[in-house]
Amino acid sequence: MRVFGVDPGLTRCGFGVVDSGRGRTVAPVAVDVIRTPPEMELSQRLLRISNAAEEWLDLYKPTVLAVERVFSQHNVRTAMGTAQAGGVVALAAARRGIDVCFHTPSQVKSAVAGNGAADKKQVTAMVTKILGLAVAPKPADAADALAIAICHCWRAPMLSRMAQAEQAAAEQKRRYEARLAELNKTRLKKAGTP
Q1: Residues within the annotated binding site?
Q2: Which of 13, 126, 131, 159 has the fewest CB atoms lying closer than 10 Å?
Q3: 119 assigned to active site
Q4: Which of 92, 64, 90, 88 is closest to 4 using CA atoms?
Q5: Where does the chain bind Mg(2+) 1 (predicted)?
C-alpha cells in the first residue's frame, strides 16, 4: 500500500509518501513542504496547495490519502485555513478515486511515538527511526506528514477488520429481525388474527 500523508496548513502544508510492507515495515518515498506566503490571497494559496497535491497524486500514485484531522485550535482563523488546505488535497484525491482517511493528532502521535500527547521532537525522532532516515525531516510539518502516513499504514488493517465486523454484525441483526418478524406473523396466524 502506498500512502500519501498530509499535515494540512496554509503557510506550510506537509506532504509525505511511504510504502508499507509486511507487518509494520514502512519505507520512505518522498517528503516535502508546500509553502504559501501569508500575504497571498486565500484562494491563490489554496490553489497552490491544490496544484501541488495534484502533481504529487499523479507522480506517486498513492493507494490512499491520509490527512490529519483538524481537531481543535484556539485560533479559529488558523483552524479554518488548516481545514481548507486539507479539504483541497482531499478533493484532489477524491476526484482520482483515491480513498481519503482522516486521523486525529493523538491517533498519529500514539501510533508513531506510543504516546498520544507526544511533542513534535518525539514524533520527528520516531519518524526518523521508523523510516531509517540518516537525517530528520525538517521542518516539523514534513515529519508530521510522514507520521500521518505511517499511522495510516499501521491503523488501516485494524480499521478494515473493524469495518468488516460492523458489516457482519449489521447483516446478522438484519437476519435476526427478519426471522423475528416471520415468527410474529406465524404466531398471529395461529392465534386467528388476520
Answers
A1: 7, 68, 141
A2: 159
A3: no
A4: 64
A5: 7, 141
The residues pairing with 12 across neighbouring beta strands, listed in sequence order, are 35
CATH superfamily of 2-165: Ribonuclease H-like superfamily/Ribonuclease H (3.30.420.10)
15 and 22 Cβ atoms separated by less than 8 Å: no
Q: Write out the E strands in the chain.
A: 2-7, 12-20, 26-35, 64-68, 99-103
Round to whole Å and give the CA distance between 133 and 137.
Answer: 8
Question: In this structure, what C-alpha cell is assigned to residue 50?
Answer: 491544490
- Say what the pTM is: 0.80
Cα distances from 191 to residues 52, 148, 167, 177, 187, in angstroms, run 71, 62, 36, 21, 6
Residue in 32, 119, 141, 144 annotated catalytic: 141
Q: Is the separation of the CB atoms in 151 and 103 below 8 Å?
A: yes
Tell me the pLDDT of the chain (194 aa) as tens digits: 999 999 999 999 999 999 998 888 999 999 999 999 999 999 999 999 999 999 999 999 999 999 998 866 666 777 888 899 999 999 999 999 999 999 999 999 999 998 888 999 999 999 999 999 999 999 999 999 999 999 999 887 666 666 667 777 888 888 888 888 888 888 888 877 55
Q: First-to-last CA distance in the chain?
A: 58
Q: Decide if 68 is catalytic.
A: yes
